[in-house]
Amino acid sequence: MYLVTFRLAPGEYDTEFHQLNDAIQATAEDTEGYLGKQTWHAPDSEEVLVVYYWESLDALESFGADADHKRAKQRWTEWYDAYEVTVTEVVETYESGFGDDASPLV
């Protein structure tokens, strides 16, 4: 499994951003191997952290080839003040106590 952590400092979102963001999320959900996402908002700043869960690197690369996703990456300066993407391969997971719907992995 792979995690893509998208850390962002939001800027100004316009209608086009929201339309593109919705299209990208729909594409992710339709991509075989997409497992889900979780979002956190920093309590002391505007920073947002979104973690996407992927079954394989092939699934992630398939999503990355999407035209809307590529277009959004080229236009990031219009909507974000800063961003960082980290791709991580998961070697092991274990959990206790978060409940049935706490993680896309459950």
Automatic annotation (TrEMBL):
<dbReference type="InterPro" id="IPR011008">
    <property type="entry name" value="Dimeric_a/b-barrel"/>
</dbReference>
<dbReference type="InterPro" id="IPR025444">
    <property type="entry name" value="Monooxy_af470"/>
</dbReference>
<protein>
    <recommendedName>
        <fullName>ABM domain-containing protein</fullName>
    </recommendedName>
</protein>
<dbReference type="Pfam" id="PF13826">
    <property type="entry name" value="Monooxy_af470-like"/>
</dbReference>
<dbReference type="InterPro" id="IPR052936">
    <property type="entry name" value="Jasmonate_Hydroxylase-like"/>
</dbReference>
<keyword id="KW-0614">Plasmid</keyword>
